[in-house]
Amino acid sequence: MKREHVRDLLQQVANGALDVGNALDALAFEPAESLAFATIDHHRALRQGFPEVIYGAGKTPEQICAIAERIAAHGDGLLVTRISAEAGESLRATFPDIEINTVARTAHLAGQQPPPAGSGTVAVITAGTSDLPVAEEAAVTLTALGNCVVRITDVGVAGIHRVLARRDELASAAVVIVIAGMDGALPSVVGGLVSAPVIAVPTSVGYGAAFQGVAPLLAMLNSCAAGVTVVNIDNGFGAAVAASRITHSRAS
To answer: Packing angle between helix 236-251 and helix 132-144, nearest 10 degrees?
Structure first.
């Protein structure tokens, strides 16, 4: 249940179109729902503007679909991350209109009403093509949350002219998400070019000394560019949610 739905209920009570008891029942309807393997937070959309997102890794296709059916029944939209190909097939069989992004490993079902729009554009930048799964997770999440997204791909520091050629797009973005593995240098470069908030995402891409993303994580945490914040390794979803809160606070 989104805040807009609560506002409508309260307006109906004020107008006399709905009695207080029925409004209270509607507000109290399943704030949390317990299944055998999950407890679903149905009031997440009321508090944060979007329903609880399902993290698919470690869950069976049957568990994912059961949770998804209960969330989707409220009509506010559905987002599932880190799904397997088998889970994607099960979700498509359950929800024919769901959008499966095989690169991002996500599934998104639009709600009955579009989410409130964020202010400005979020640029999602990758240092290399190998970073695309994390970038696409971020892009899908941003779109589901009501943001305008620009993708800039494969502009790492090994060819610095590539990112400099996209400087106008970077400068016009409200938030920039920079995704890089290996030496993790790209967020520092971008942080020195733009005035917008920069959210750095280290990826587990790289040879042995990258330590599955630890090396770029430490490089980003030690960035000499001001205004760069860092999320966890491969956490495109977390970066997108943070960026979306920035754009929606600008819009309010």
So the answer is: 30
pLDDT digit string, tens, across residues 88-105: 999 999 999 999 999 999
Write down the pTM of the prediction: 0.87
Cα 22 versus chain centre, distance = 34
- What is the C-alpha separation between 246 and 232, in angstroms, rounded? 18
Residue written as tokens 């606070």? 249
User: Which residues lie closer than 8 Å to 215 by C-beta, 6 or more apart?
Assistant: 182, 183, 184, 206, 209
Neighbours of 117 (CB within 10 A): 13
User: What band does 3 get if pLDDT is binned at 50, 70 and 90?
Assistant: low
Q: How far apart are CA 239 and CA 233, in angstroms?
A: 10
**Domains of the chain, residue spans:** 31-109, 121-251
Among residues 9, 34, 29, which one has the least CA distance to residue 20? 9
Q: Which fold has domain 121-251?
A: Rossmann fold (3.40.50)
Lowest-pLDDT choice from 36-40, 139-143, 202-206, 208-212 = 36-40
